[in-house]
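Blackboard transcription, Thursday session:
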Amino acid sequence: MNSLDVLGSLVDPSQYRAPINLEDFAEETLKSFLKSLILIRKTEQQLAVCRRDLFIGGPVHLGVGQEAVAVGVSYSLRKTDRVFGAHRSHSHLLALNPDFYRLFAETLGKDTGFSRGMGGSMHLWDQPNGFYGSVPIVAGTVSLAVGAGLAAKLQRKEGSDTDIGVAYLGDGAIEEGVVHESLNLASIQDIPVLFVVENNLFASHMHVSQRQPSNIMARFAYANNMESEVVDGNDVVSVAKTAKRLIDNARAGKGPGFLEAVTYRWYGHVDWRDDIDVGIERSVEDINNWKARDPVARLSQAMQLAGVWSEKDELKLNANLDNEIENAWNKAMDDPYPHGDSTLDYVYK
Ligand SMILES: Cc1ncc(C[n+]2csc(CCOP(=O)(O)OP(=O)(O)O)c2C)c(N)n1
Ligand SMILES: [Mg+2]
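(Written on the board underneath:)
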């Protein structure tokens, strides 16, 4: 245990397992949250199996267990916003555009993929839907999101609010110097950007207590005089509600926001195993405890208690999605690879 264990019960997986509070979110919104959570979960589980079976050649960093962060944040985003991710960004993209077929094609290196098959799992791009890109360089896109937010501010039309930049980053990325320059600049220039920290307590195999003197990342928002909130990242309603407030502020010219979502990834750092590349503290017991704080099950249970969802609905949704995912995967497998002549078409020359 570190000396500044500020997150307290939020990082105790025996806490916060109960169905979540649905607040006053509309039934249709809750259903779309649940559908999006399950779609992202199943897409990544498909990637896990296909990576294990070596259909996918490159590494995949899976965010299973963390889906509620992207789904909650994306609730208040629009296509003209500028969203940036990193090495674990399938959910960030799919929450904006649920086209898993193009993600499958990308991981297979096919011409029909999000980046024409030239990027793979860690170089995703879907600008028409607001996803400006992900890269494997930890914290590499954080300053880009600030720049994109500044551009949006300068492009704002008289009488309207502004589009915003969004930077998804991890608790490990916080340790990169550029993040602190980015927070400082965003704050001093009132740039419309939302920093979303997915604090899953690990950077590769190292627990946060081995890396930092405190487990709360929002201390850097405080240091930069920036509006911030820490939420249970496995509660989609809580993430959506809080992100909305911070996003509305940024759009209205009230400056940047910092959202820290405490969560946990079910798989190891990379690929499909539970136990790969993890430290001694990540015991099977810990993982199982966190699985009991499942963002999907907690939303589903709350909706069933509220009478707006049933087990039968969920069985039907699962069956439809399983079928669609299988078809999309098979289609992507049959797709062509990009032609060798196009290798340099999408790079700066
Ligand atoms: C600049 C840089 N340093 C190191 C790495 C190796 N690396 C890849 S992911 C990772 C950990 C990142 O942890 P975090 O930001 O918490 O994200 P998470 O993997 O937990 O989602 C590291 C050190 C890298 N890709 N880029
Ligand atoms: Mg992390």
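Lecturer's comment: The longest helix spans residues 27-52.
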